Amino acid sequence: MYTLFMIFAKFITRAMTKLSPEVCGSMKIYNFEEKVMLNTVYIRVWVFPNAISIWCGTNSAFSNLCASVPVRMSPIPPSIPLLSCSDKCQSLAQRLALRLNIPVFVSFENMDGLNDIELMSKAEKSIFNYVKEIMRNDIEEPIH
């Protein structure tokens, strides 16, 4: 059962990498994968009309997120703080907010041996490019 769920989660993640969001009211949700060293980092982005929330984690944390918090029932899982708690998350959120001109909240969870500095140095550019592409698409197709 767990293996079947993992295959399904990977399929959904790969399918959504083409910027096809799941829409929940006035919010869009995107999922991405990024290779960081030997690990796959999963990135989930919630795009609200006036803010963006970003969650990053590895395979096991992403599986727990998908299993415990169905998207339609709760837009943001309880593990994502409203304000970034670590200095590293906060500095990434501030850099993204300055570059994107919108409030950004960032949370990292259970990086399976990767420390936050390694993750951010390897994945920050990809996270920024994903979010920039999302913002470009949302300007072309606004959220109703």
Automatic annotation (TrEMBL):
<dbReference type="Pfam" id="PF16093">
    <property type="entry name" value="PAC4"/>
</dbReference>
<dbReference type="GO" id="GO:0043248">
    <property type="term" value="P:proteasome assembly"/>
</dbReference>
<protein>
    <submittedName>
        <fullName>Uncharacterized protein</fullName>
    </submittedName>
</protein>
<dbReference type="InterPro" id="IPR032157">
    <property type="entry name" value="PAC4"/>
</dbReference>
